[in-house]
Every structure is written in structure tokens, then in C-alpha cells.
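Ticket #207: bound-state structure for PRP.
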Amino acid sequence: MDRRGHDTASCLRGIKRRQRFSPGAEMREAATEILFTKGAIERRVAELAAQISRDYKGKEPLVVGILNGAFIFMADLIRALAVPCRVDFVRLASYGTGSVSSGEIRIGKDLETPIAGHDVLIVEDIVDTGLTLSRLVEILQKRQPASLKVCAFLDKRERRRVPFTADYVGFSIPDRFVVGYGLDYNEKFRFLPDVCVLGTSSEGEGI
Ligand code: PRP
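RESOLUTION: The complex was predicted; output attached.
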């Protein structure tokens, strides 16, 4: 644990105590397990950065983060790169009727940087169904970048609804609900330094 930073277990205990943590009826007895520690994440990010630095040697990629989830991973990744880069961000929105998602994804906040002729590396926290990234790649390819690659911190391959393969992946994970290191549950837990599985002991699916 970082003495000045957050310790995942005590943070979660504190949140439950102070906020009477109730993630919803289906998750009322939240239980957690650390899937990837801060140290394991640091080591994997360093490996990814080394690989990306080799691949982009002599180049200055535009690193595009997808808000909100990617911001912590992207901050660590770009500081570990051995090549210079520029940064920009997009936010995506899925559209539908009422609470039913149509699966249609559009850009909410667009890039502020033209990408034609530039090397673009999209950075994402997690690939789940693949809808977000396959759509974003389709949109950005039309702007004719010199190259377009994707680096995803986590990959839940068994959840794919559309085919999508990231060029760089931090960790492949099973179909469990994970939080921390930028990933949220109802906007909570993004700040946790470890990646944790959020489960329920009441459903017998807990950890
Ligand atoms: C999450 C995640 C990815 C997307 C992946 O974003 O950050 O962007 O879902 O899902 P997909 O592969 O099924 O499309 P979310 O909409 O939860 O927003 P957030 O980044 O603000 O957490």
C-alpha cells in the first residue's frame, strides 16, 4: 500500500461504513477480491509501454483516451513511454429509447486534434461487447490517420457481441464486474489503486 495513497480493502470498508454502501438490490452484500494489485498493474503497464515504444520508435503518436474510464491507465501509460506523444480525449454516448440501449454509439465529445496523416493510438480501460471500440475505430478511420491502433487495459473476450481485437492488451479477464484503476460502478471506485472484482455474497457469486 502507498502510505500516502489509497488501500483498496480499507477504502471499501470505509465506503461501506460511511456511505452505508448499497450498490443495489442485486449487489447488496458487496464483496471484493483484488484481481490485479497496484504492483502487478505497474509491471504490466511498464511492459505495454516498452512494447508500444518499440513499435512507435521515431514517431510521435497522438494518444486518444476514451473518457471516463481510461484516464488513469492512460496517465500511467504515457508517462512510461520512451517516445514523445500528444494527447486528446473522446467521450462516447450510446443512444436508445428510454432505458433500452440501441447499441448505437456516437461521439459525445470529439477530438480537438485533426488526425489525418498522424499515428493514432486509442487507449481504453476495458473492451467488453466490443461495440464502443469497433464504432470508434470506424469513425476515426474515415479521418484517414497514418495509422490507428488500440491499447486496452482489460479485455473481457467472452462478452463480445461484435468482433474486435485490440493491438495491445494489459490483461484478459473473465466475465466478472471489475472496479478500480479508472473502472467504476455507478461512478464509484474509479480511484482504487487495484483492480477488484465486485460481487455479491448473497447471490452465491461472490468471492
Ligand atoms: C465502458 C468502458 C468502455 C466501454 C466498453 O464505458 O469504459 O468505454 O464501456 O464496453 P463495450 O466494449 O461493451 O462497448 P462506460 O460507458 O461505462 O463509461 P466510462 O468509461 O465513463 O466508465
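RESOLUTION NOTES: The helical segments are 8-19, 38-55, 71-80, 131-141.
TICKET STATUS: resolved
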